[in-house]
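Worked example 2:
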Amino acid sequence: MLELPRPLLRSFRLALRRAGLSPPRGRALAVLCEAGADGLSLSCAGEEAGLRYADDRPRPGACLALPAEALAHLEGAEGVVSLEEAGSPGGLRARWREGGSPRLLELAAPPAAPELPEPEDDWVQAGDPLWAALGEAARVARGAERARLAQVLLRPSRGEVVATDGRQLLALGGLVLPDGPDALAPALALFTQRPGGPVRAAGASGHLLVEAGPWAVALKLSSAEGYPDVDAVLARSEGAASRLQLRPDDARTLLLALPRLPGRDEDRSPVELVLGPKPRLRAGAEEVPLPNSSASGPACRVHTDRRYLERALRLRLLELSVAATPEAILCARAGPSRLLWMALDGAAERPARTRIPKEEQTVPNNDNKAPLPSEGRADDALAEAEALRAQLQEALGRTARLVALLRHQRRQGKAVEAAVASLRRLGQLGP
């Protein structure tokens, strides 16, 4: 007989889901339950990943295979489940109490329960940065439309975890990984949760084992052949560029402002980043100044999806650059970690006396004099035109919502008229 805490069964089922190990349609997964002098362990292995929970409290010896789909019936907030062999070979009988009443469940024999691979080399102390990097990479890769991109690239020689969805590329460096060639690993939502303890990693028979406290995850590795040339993409962001060094207080201001700025519900949530003597962020008619940050290089303006900028700020990648190669590529970095994405308009607007406001003129005229009055009027007219465009876009959105509301009300009115007409006809049928 084997006794399992019901809260542990709930935690294990949720972890299986986050590890992509929910039973596939038409197939079944088995959870191997082992107990003995070394403690209790629950493990489940699929084609791409495996999961194990283990504690070291000694228990009576037992070894049973439990169907993974049965966890939903056995889990609970308190109490224990008693499992024993019964019926056909491999069959199980589960007993527990719920709401003060005894419960009994007969379980059919599950399929064979493969064991997780064991480490081939010594564990390396990877720490929380590796767990967090795998989680951030999973968030990016899980948004990819191509199957090849919906994985995470591990680069042990560079200490990097890389992910792309075809629109952005995230390379998180400074990590500790077991030795080995570059390889692809599944992107698991499990890593977006907090680790359950100290994190370490090891290689194991074509897998990467990542252990955090009592939990261990086995990631099946595959060849990186066919994955985009990461170095070539990163190289496009180098060279002469306009740069912005964000101060932490300005970064916090931006993080609070981005969700509420106009245009958040539009396609690609556009905002305009202005780099110059007075760096700032624009969205529609609203503006967020960045008084404590500094810009260098040519002044420019670039439109970007605010979601990528928000991700960079959340990851504390506060050194921002805009490089034209020839398209405008934005790169946010901190140390060896970088996030790259394309500008919305394809290119950054470079300094021009008819395009950049007066306070952004970084190169004086040949005679070292102030701009002519006609140039100043052109700048003011451009700013006014941009403000008018933003107002017209907002008015267009409000008009569309109003038209939709009027159409809905008209449909409701027709339905009411039809109902009244039906009632009148029924009245004519009376005595």
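Residues 352-380, 426-431 have pLDDT under 50 and may be disordered. Residues 2-107 form a domain with the DNA Polymerase III; Chain A, domain 2 fold (CATH 3.10.150.10).
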